[in-house]
Amino acid sequence: xxxxxxxxxxxxxxxxxxxxxxxxxxxxxxxxxxxxxxxxxxxxxxxxxxxxxxxxxxxxxxxxxxxxxxxxxxxxxxxxxxxxxxxxxxxxxxxxxxxxxxxxxxxxxxxxxxxxxxxxxxxxxxxxxxxxxxxxxxxxxxxxxxxxxxxxxxxxx
Length: 157
Fold this sequence. Notes:
Immunoglobulin-like, 5-stranded mixed sheet, globular
């Protein structure tokens, strides 16, 4: 696999298969499904040119998957909210209990009634999501300390 990254911060921009063309800087690493599926949990140590774990945001929801497609479902009636919880986790996957990061919430697919910003309290924060329009919605978050998350898909039915 090839890992294209920011030369100053080590932030991973793209993870691709070996046959893909990417611009510099990049490093070649052994195939790793976790890195490929969760690049926000890693960064490149610029001095050693190696991939290392990093702090990351984990999104979860109280919605369940009723149609067994692997995506949480919620009614699109505009009155039934779901709660999205964000936790800031350290490199080893433990909760960063002192984290008070400001979180920016970005819908990246579909329009949603959600807050644009809020702060973590002891490493945890949450917000409610509502929609009156059926379909797939995708939410992503980033903190003011440049810690990101993998997108969370929600299906409004």
